[in-house]
Design goal:
Rossmann fold; alpha/beta; globular; 6-stranded antiparallel sheet; NADPH-hemoprotein reductase activity; Flavoprotein-like_sf; FMN; 3 domains; EC 1.6.2.4; 454 residues; flavoprotein
């Protein structure tokens, strides 16, 4: 290195050093502030024992409703500790007078990832709770056999421990406004106020469908399309990698469909990856059919962005990342890889599965470019039908268990995006075999095992 006394060069070097330090410091400060706020909330609740608002969320709905619940109590002058269910221990449950549980169900009756430790640690034991008064808001989807399964199991366990219900369990099917309104009504009665914050979701905005390209022409699988949209207002809203959009299709505007965002604000557009769904009678999915087949380029799409805090990078922004998925799940992982590349973070390992390399290698040129530029340290693509014996991403993962353990020991976080059936369960089993079920649950509780599966 050649040293110089040139003041302009010294200032430039100093400025670059300070800038880099600030980039490294920001995630630490955010995490520190979050921990300090949680500690203050817990201390306040301990000083004035009574209410806890706790949530278990997979995609963020229960989280948002819990924040609105806590805000309503605060408006009524009732201090309450707001926390994730995973943060509660047996002593918290035994000390509290009132707890409001807002919990979603993952898949067929399971607890959300971050609540798996709570379910295994406490809901399998006997814990006398005669002093506790509680209520449960259970979120679910009636398309699944075990509708609101975790919320129901939690309610039954609490009753078995002697806890007393403040009012009957409220079950919410696909974010039903009527059911959420019932929860609000009961909450207002408990808090003794009819004045509550606005719980309504943000309005949909008008966006233009600017580009649509099929990525897998000739594939044996269903068609997959890359879409790009821009706001008609011209003002691009902010979002983070991992977030979602909700699209209101004209044929069913009351039930918005959610898609992972495959881009970052620096791209200037929202990118989506949409697989055309075809029913047994040959008809297409309401949203996927409209977006990929019926809507013309330039047509207006009613869309709104939704934060997906359980799948954002946030405190994991400086960690190595293991990104795992299949099919259209590359969308959510692509957003993270774009964010990492922009930040100069190259310690990324992508394991991804599809049908055939010749037709289903989505975003291949982009992935190759990131590898070449050092932004994708390791890439494992698994194509299930390119050999006589079908192989899947979980098979490749199981073969590299030792490497997974090494990455986790180095502080890596794991992000999974793709299909719930088959892939997500298989990957979870492979990770549990490599790290131990308790170890995997601990990663989930620490926010280092995050999933966006559907």
């Amino acid at each position: 290195m050649i040293w110089t006394n040139d003041p302009s060069r010294l200032m430039m070097v100093a400025g670059m050093s300070v800038g880099y330090a600030l980039v490294c410091l920001a995630p630490y400060l955010r995490t520190r502030r979050k921990r300090q706020a949680a500690a203050r909330a817990k201390a306040e609740a301990a000083a004035s024992p009574g209410w806890i608002v706790t949530y278990a969320s997979q995609t963020g709905n229960a989280d948002e409703l819990a924040q609105q619940t806590a805000a309503t109590l605060k408006l009524a002058g009732i201090p309450a500790r707001l926390c994730e269910l995973s943060e509660l221990d047996a002593q918290d449950l035994q000390d509290a007078e009132r707890i409001l549980f807002l919990v979603s169900t993952y898949g067929e009756g399971d607890a959300p990832d971050a609540a798996a430790g709570f379910a295994g640690r406490l809901m399998t034991t006997s814990l006398p709770l005669p002093q506790l008064h509680y209520a449960v808001l259970a979120l679910g989807d009636s398309a699944y056999t075990q509708f609101c399964g975790f919320g129901r199991a939690l309610d039954h366990w609490l009753q078995a421990q002697g806890a007393q219900t403040l009012f009957p369990r409220v079950e919410v099917n696909r974010s039903s406004e009527q059911a959420i309104g019932q929860w609000r009504q009961q909450l207002s009665h408990l808090a003794g106020t009819s004045d509550a914050p606005d719980w309504s979701a943000p309005a949909f905005d008008a966006w233009r469908l600017s580009e649509r390209v099929q990525l897998n022409a000739g594939s044996a699988g269903a068609p997959v399309y890359h879409l790009e949209l821009e706001p008609l207002s011209g003002a691009l809203p902010d979002w983070q990698s991992g977030d979602l959009v909700q699209v209101a299709a004209p044929a069913d505007p009351a039930r918005a469909r959610e898609y992972s965002i495959a881009s970052i604000p620096a791209d200037g557009r929202v990118h989506l990856l949409v697989r055309l769904h075809t029913h047994e009678d040959g008809s297409h999915g309401v949203a996927s059919g409209w977006l990929t087949q019926q809507a013309s380029l330039g047509e207006t799409v009613q869309l709104r962005l939704r934060p997906h805090r359980r799948f954002r990078l946030e405190g994991n922004a400086e960690r190595p990342l293991i990104l795992i998925g299949n099919g259209s799940g590359i969308a959510g992982l692509r957003g993270h890889l774009k964010a990492r590349a922009l930040a100069g973070q190259g310690r990324n390992w992508l394991l991804f599965g599809e049908r055939n390399a010749a037709y289903d290698y989505h975003y291949r040129a982009e992935l190759d470019g990131w590898q070449r530029d050092g932004m994708l340290g390791k890439l494992d693509m698994v194509f299930s039908r390119d050999q006589a014996e079908r192989r899947y991403v979980q098979d490749r993962l199981a073969e590299q268990a030792e490497l997974v353990r090494n990455w986790i020991a180095e502080g890596a976080a794991i992000y999974i995006c793709g299909s719930l059936d088959g892939m997500a369960a298989g990957v979870d089993a492979a990770l549990a075999a490599a790290l131990g079920r308790d170890g995997l649950d601990a990663l989930a509780a620490a926010g280092r095992y995050r999933r966006d599966v559907y």
